[in-house]
Structures are given as structure tokens and as C-alpha cells.
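To the team - 5-deoxy-5-fluoro-D-xylulose complex, inputs and output below.
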Amino acid sequence: MAAAADSPLYLGLDFSTQQLKAVAIDAGLAVVQRNSVQFDSELPDFRTQGGVHIHPDGLTVTSPVLMWVKALDLLLDKLKGAGLDFSRIRAVSGSGQQHGSVFWRTGASQTLDQLDPELRLHQLLQDSFSVQDSPVWMDSSSGRQCQDLQAAVGGALRLAEITGSRAYERFTGNQIAKLRASRADEFQDTERISLVSSFAATLFLGSYAAIDYSDGSGMNLLDIKSRNWSDLCLEATAPHLNRLLGAPQPSTSVLGPVSSYFVHRYGFSESCMVVAFTGDNPASLAGMRLQQGDVAVSLGTSDTVFVWIQEPRPALEGHIFCNPVDLQAYMALLCFKNGSLTRKRIRDECAGRSWDVFSAALRDTALGNGGNIGFYFDTIEITPPAVGVHRFDCHNNKVSSWSPQVEVRAVVEGQFLSRRLHAERLGYSIIPGTRVLATGGASSNKEILQVLSDVFNAPVYTLDLADSACLGCAYRALHGVLAESGLSFSDVVKNAPEPQLVATPHPTAQQVYEGMLKRFAQLEEMVLQKTCT
Ligand code: 5FX
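Output:
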């Protein structure tokens, strides 16, 4: 049934690397509007490529902060032009690419407090940033600061135990430490540091928005157990950082009403609430409606695995973040660089460039591949940090080649055994009711998903969500206003479209892959010792 023309709406935004997206839903979770602004093509003055500037050193990667502000002006105009009645929006939430940082110049809070609705945000805020080019997640120029931080807290594992991750160059604390050292004057002139997510919430709120626990976990600064800044990490990063960051808050917090700027310029209701913004990965977890026991596997150029975790075991690989929809829980995020491109290379070499032939090879070979196990790291892998192609027979002897059909099964089984092994190392365990949610390009291949189902010994579902982060934020906006009446996030989204069941595990899957997983772990250790860089 269509919602009434004046029924409430909930707005979700996503400030991602290449674009700004919006989705508006009604209280029945139906999408009523979608819109977006592409940074490169619609804001060409900023001369970005893929939304970023890669600096001559090849390591520093930034985005112009005013481009994000201007994109919001443009997006709101587009939504208005498309007929969105802003007065119906009860709550807005959003997400941003994780780890990126925004440096507000001294005095910016006063500017935010008195925004003139006659002017556009980018005109009003052009002098409000002490650093114009914001470091983003693609930056890898803070290696030195990573080493310093790990040394200061007692090593990489200790840092992972406190913050959920060992030091990573893109993590915000290390970016802040680098900026403080390399651009002391700008740093001195900074009154507040936001993440991309809390910066975007600040625009709506008209005052500094808190960093939420979930996105805050991507900074190497937050103690993920106490959910407060770690004094040890703050002190090792920069002086007075506590004051510059403000207190972190739960990701489900209602931060306050939208500023009068949005009421007067766009006709938002004075009672429209801003719900804490968060990182794009936590927001995707919300958009996919992941539950305890579930694992989401995104099969793209690189494969990403998200899991809902109750008892985290931070390690030297992957990341543990506070969970964005359940205060007691956590989520783990793992990135695997060798995903689709590697599967495609094997398709080209062993299946005559045909996905149909590739699929037939998976159908025609037995679960467990006769004990053969392969590792395919065409480029240096993130998880684990190894490189090269390594094949082992059922006696763990190295072999140099296999038949094309065995090779096809080996690449897919090897990748999924790795996804399961590394998720389990961070505290994931398969429980009754576990679902594997598959997204991304390869999620349309049934035979690949059958192997996924067998290796995880769990049913696989697909989700057709091009904008899971954005939709997740529209759900989070709705949850924010309903949470006060005691409703959990899963209560609020229980009527969202169900994912589609596409594969169930073969009856022998558990028996085959339990043993194989143990062998896989031992062989991976061997590969790592041989190829460690
Ligand atoms: C996660 O740790 C990442 O760095 C990326 O997935 C960014 O969040 C992309 F926006």
C-alpha cells in the first residue's frame, strides 16, 4: 500500500570516495527517492579523479573538503527539484568513507552557528577549514607515524588489542600525527577534528557532531572495549587531542535537531532529528541487516568480508569495529586484494574465457578437490601478506600444475577457505542459523556461490543492494527516532525486503571442509614463511 503523501520520511546519505548519494525511505521502508552527485563530472572545478587527488609522492591521497560541502548543496537542490518534500523528513543520518579527516579552523563553530539561509554552504564555509585537502582512506603516507604509535603503546598486537587494529597508514590517528609534524601552522589553527562522517553530521547539526563509536574504531585511537579514547594512543599522537576530537558517542545517538539553516533554506521541519553518522562499512552492515552469526561476503575487484562478532579477538590482520546497531556487539572487516581479477585470470587460462565453462568445472569436480589446495596471490595480498601462486596435493607436497578443472575449483575453494579462516581468527564462529550474504559482481554466479555455501557450511543469500551504506543510514535514521521506545534495530527493519536464498550446503560439506580448513591454515603458514616480504 502506498504511504500517504504527508507521511514521515527518513533520509540516508553516503559521502563515499567518488560520489555523494541519498536515499529517502518511508516508515514502511519503501524507497521513495534516490539521487547522487558524482564528484569528478559534476564538480569538475575541483579536478579530482575518482574523487581524490593523488600527490606526486604517490603515497599522499586527499580530497578537497569544500568539494564535499558543495556536493551537499547540489544534492539538496537535486532532491528538491525531484520533488522531495523536506518537511516530511523526521530524521536524517549518513555515512562517510572511513578514516578520512576534516580539520576545522579556529572560529568555525561560530560560523556554523549563524549560517545565512540565503547563501550556499560552500560559500558560507569556505574559510572554515584549516586544511583544505583532507587525507582520505587511500592515503598511505604515514608509515613513520604507524611505527611510532606501535612503539609507544608496546607493539602492534597491543595496539590491536586496544583499538581493534594494528597501526594502518590510512587510520586517522596516524594521519593526524603526520599532519601535526608536517603542517604545524595549520594544525595549530585547528579547533576541531572530524571524521568524514561526523563532518557531514556537523553540517546538518550546525554545531560539532560527535564521532560515533563505530567509525571512531577506524582511527587507532579508540579503546574498543571501554568505548572511550585511549589516553595512551591520544598522548602518542598529538597534544590536547581529547579536546580536538570531542567525546565519542554511540552510533545510534540522536544528536539533536537540524540547524535552522536547513529549516529556512530547504523547508526541513524544526523537529527533524540528526542521528549520528558513521563509516561506510558499518553503514553497509546496517543496510544488509546483518545479524549475529551472519557473514557478508562482497565479491568484487577485491573481496571484503564483514562479520557480526560478539567476542572479538583483535589480531594483526583485519579490523574490529564497535557494532553500529548493537552497543554490546562488534563487527570485523577483512579485505582481500585478490578477488575477481584472480578468478577471471584462471577463467581465461583454464576455462577458455567463459564463465559457463568455469561454472561447469565447479559442477564437475568433487567437494574438497581430491585434497588439492591452492593459494592464488597474483598481487601482494593484504590478508595474509603473501604473494605468488602455491599449489599443494593431498599429501601437502608442492606441485606445479593441475588439470584446468582442478585449477578452477582450487582458486574458488582456496579463496573461500581463506575468507572463513581469517574471519574465525577474529572471533567469528558459524552458529545454527548462520547466513552468508553475498554481494558484488560474482554473486550472480550460482556455482561460485555453491562453493561458498559448502565451505561455510551455511546457506547463501544474495542481496541486490547497490547502495547498502546509504540505505543502511536511512534505516538508522528511522531506528534513531524509534530507539527511545525500546525498539532494536532488527525490530525496526524486520519488514525490509528479504535476501534471496541461492545455495544450501551439500550434506557432506562439513565433513570435507572442517579437515581441509585445518590443513589450509598449516599450508598458509608455510606459504607465508616462504614468501614473507
Ligand atoms: C575500510 O577500512 C576502508 O578503508 C574502505 O573500505 C573505506 O571505508 C572506503 F570508503
